Amino acid sequence: MEVLKKLILLSFLPFNLWAQIKVVDSLTKLPIEGVTIVLDGSTDIQITNEQGEFDVSKLNNAKLITFTAIGYQKKISDIKKVQELDRVYLNPVTYLLNEVNISGKRYRKHLIGGNMSLLHGSNSYGGYNYEEARFFPNEYKREGKIIAVHYFIIKKQSFEKKSKVDLSNAFGVGVYEANEDGSPGKPLLQDDLVVRAKEHAEWFEVNLEQYNLLMPKHGFVVSFKVFSASFYNAKDARITNKNFVAPVLALKTYLRKSTESWKRRGFAISNWTRDTRSHFGIRAMIGVAK
Fold first, then answer.
1. pTM of the prediction?
2. What is the share, in percent, of the chain residues with pLDDT greater than 70?
3. What helix, strand, coil percent values describe the chain, rounded to 5?
4. What letters, b where the CB count within 10 A reaches 16 and e where it falls short, cover 148-174?
5. Phi, psi (5° rounding) for residue 210?
6. 204 near 149, Cβ under 8 Å?
7. Coil, strand or helix: which one is 177?
8. What is the pLDDT of residues 122-158, one digit of tens each?
9. In Å, what is the CA distance from 209 to each residue of 12, 87, 115, 135, 145?
């Protein structure tokens, strides 16, 4: 009888709560994979799948919902209106990848961070929910813009024979204003940006031109974020060869001390510490005034 009552109550729920909402390109009408979805007042993040779909059942306890994707304009919508739809449209951003032009000035592109000599994967904290970062000083002392950041992502650490690491799993992108000592300061990238790498042991580019990130006085810091175990549907938050499914950032180890690398557990809840022996697989593309 109790089960029957529950079924009757569920039958009165709006139909769209059972349906998938799809995020699509407003011009091509094609689904957009990898759209970051954040609910107002929540730290939980969703990303759309290959069909551009996301979980409607998690939209009940918020008023606003934000959609963010590289190459598209950010969209903030009332959650009740979204629940009445079967799809959400995002407008593409128009910009030229081969030209860098700020305030009418001409800029020259520079790739900073160099090549990656792959030694092994990095998982500094032995689990999930951590952030690794690399400092890029403003060596040019001229007006500039952060155009793109690159990550060298691998499937597994060298000592692992078997791993469930999946390159389709997502990681977070962070860009911060650097403090005078090279540590991460205030965020330059205000959006919660989540991406997926495509190739093993290759540089993966995240284009940031649409965010108009001007070069800070002391430089900037780029981070690689691994989310909680629940985000990756992993039961155990500690890393083992059997259950670790988050992406892995390549790492070069120095015998000398490094002043570039930083790390912390959790996001915005713990202090950054310098990683003096590591060089994380992160580089950046900047535009500097001629």
1. 0.79
2. 72
3. 10, 40, 50
4. bbbbbbbbbbeebeebbbebebbbbbb
5. -65, -20
6. no
7. strand
8. 555 557 888 999 999 998 877 889 999 999 887 655 4
9. 46, 27, 22, 19, 8
pLDDT digits (tens, 9 = 90+) for 26-43: 999 999 988 988 888 776
Residues 6+ apart with CB under 8 A from 115: none
- pLDDT greater at residue 2 or residue 80: 80
Query: What are the structure tokens assigned to 194, written together?
Result: 């989540």
In a 10 Å sphere around its CB, with 0-12 CB exposed, 13-18 middle and 19+ buried, how is residue 217 labelled? exposed
**Which of 42, 21, 149, 150 lies closest to 90, judged by CA?**
21
Query: Residue 30: which of 47, 16, 17, 48 has the closest Cα?
Result: 48
Q: What backbone torsions phi and psi does residue 4 show, to the nearest 5 degrees?
A: -65, -40
